[in-house]
Design brief:
Elements lengths: L6 E3 L6 E3 L3 E6 L5 E4 L7 E6 L2 H9 L2 H6 L5 H12 L2
Length: 87
């Protein structure tokens, strides 16, 4: 029997992709917004393709804010962009 592959939707481009191929951004209980590279941290998660363009789209169309149910300051978007460039 085939195991079902977990799929997630990118908040930037809206494409469905395998969870393993995506980057998870979480909002912790302390309202911190972090890149979750392990995919195991506690918090409300939103998924992005490993692509800077998707992060820019998510920032522009407020996809990240909708998914995390909180405002995302520009500094945090900039930090996420730097972290993605360094991956």
């Amino acid at each position: 029997m085939n195991k079902k592959v977990p799929m997630r939707q990118c908040v930037g481009c809206g494409e469905m992709k395998m969870k393993k191929e995506m980057i998870r951004v979480i909002k912790t209980a302390e309202n911190e917004i972090l890149l979750d590279t392990t995919g195991k941290k506690n918090g409300r998660g939103a998924y992005l393709c490993q692509d800077l363009e998707c992060l820019k789209k998510a920032a522009k169309n407020r996809g990240l804010e909708r998914s995390l149910k909180t405002a995302v300051p520009k500094e945090i978007i900039d930090t996420l962009m730097k972290e993605m460039e360094n991956r």
